[in-house]
C-alpha cells in the first residue's frame, strides 16, 4: 500500500481528503502541523499533498529548506487565493504541482495517482495488470503520456481497453486538462453521428432548438476515446479524417469553423487490417488513429492477472458496499481454472454475482454452483437465470445467422444497435461463435 502524507490544518478539508485517498487505496498520514510532517516524511511516502498556511509556519518556505531527496517526492501544494507566488517559488525548488483553492477533488486524485505512479512503478502500483504483458503496456502508456500521439487499443471485448484509455488520460498531469470523452461508435444511430460528433447551431435542422457542442468540442484539451471505431460508417470515417487533418470542423449549420485540440484514442475488437482489406475501413484514417498500436492480450493468455484483477475488483466492491468480503481458496481455484472468454468484464460480473449470493461476505462457491442455494429444493431455477440464458443463446444464434453484422442482427431482433451492444457486453458475447 502506498503512503500519502496530507499536511492540512483545516479539520473538514483534512478529514474529507483523508477519507477520499483511503478509498483510493493509500495509507494516509494526516499531519496538522509542519513539525508532525517532518516526522512523517521519514516514512518515504509516494506523494505529499500540502496546504500552504499551517499554524507553525508557511509550508512553501519550509519546503525549500528540506533536503533534495525529500523534495524529490511528488509534492502537490493546495494554495489559497494570494499564495500562488509562494507555490510558484516552491515549484522552482522542486514541487511538482499546485492547485488553487477551491479545487476539483477528482483532479487532485488523478494528479496524485499519476505522480505516485510515475515515481514508483513497483508491482503494487500496477493499474492494468501484473503480468509481464500488461506491465509492458503500462510502461508504454507512461512513455507516451507526455506526447499527444494517437493510440489504437485493440483486443477482445472486455480486456480493459477503456480502462487503459482512462489510465492514459489520467497520466496527463496538466492542471488545465480537459475531459475524457468516451464515444461508443456502435451505439449512435447513423443519422445522428454528424450532429453528435461535430455539434450543431440553433436552427441547423428542425428540432435544433439550441446549439449543441459535439464530442470533438467537448474533448478540447482532453481525450476523445472512440470505442468500437470499426463500426463507424464510411461517410463518417471521411468526415472524421478531415477534422483530424485540419484540426478543426464545422458545427452543423455553422459558418465559422471550430478548433479543438485533443488526444485521440481509439479501440476496436475487430482486426482493422481485415476491415481495411475488405474496404470497410479507410486506410488513411487507420494510420491517423494508429500512430501507436497497443494490442491487449485476452485474460486467458495472462493468468497472472486473474487473481490480481479479482482482488482489485473485490477491494472496490468492499469500498462500495462497506462490508468485508473475501474469497475462499476453493473459489480462487475455480477462478483460476476458467478461461474467461469475456475477459475482465466477465470476471467483474462473476464476482458481483458471487457477492450477491454470499450471506456472510465469504465468497465460497462460484455463482452457477451457488445458485441452487437461492433456489427452492425442487430444483426450479430462478426465472431471471432462465430468461438471461435464453437471451444469450438467441443473440449468439442471430449473430451467426447475420454473419456477425451487429446492424443486421439488431434489425432482425427488432432492437436498436445500442441495446444489442449492451446485451452483448452483459453476456460477454464477443463473436457469433
Ligand atoms: N485493470 C483493471 N482493473 C479493474 N477493473 C478492470 C481492469 N480492466 C478491466 N476492468 C473491468 O472490466 C470491465 C471491462 O473493461 P473495459 O470496459 O475497459 O473493456 P473493453 O476492452 O473496453 O471492452 P469493450 O471492447 O467491450 O468496450 C470493466 O468493468 C472494467 O472496470
From TrEMBL:
Residues modified as 4-aspartylphosphate: 51
Leader sequence segment: none
Sequence ranges assigned to domain Sigma-54 factor interaction in this UniProt record: 127-356
GO biological process: phosphorelay signal transduction system; regulation of DNA-templated transcription
Any one GO molecular-function label of the UniProt entry: ATP binding
Keyword list, A-Z: ATP-binding, DNA-binding, Nucleotide-binding, Phosphoprotein, Transcription, Transcription regulation
PANTHER family: PTS-DEPENDENT DIHYDROXYACETONE KINASE OPERON REGULATORY PROTEIN-RELATED (PTHR32071:SF117), TRANSCRIPTIONAL REGULATORY PROTEIN (PTHR32071)
Protein name in the entry: Sigma-54-dependent Fis family transcriptional regulator
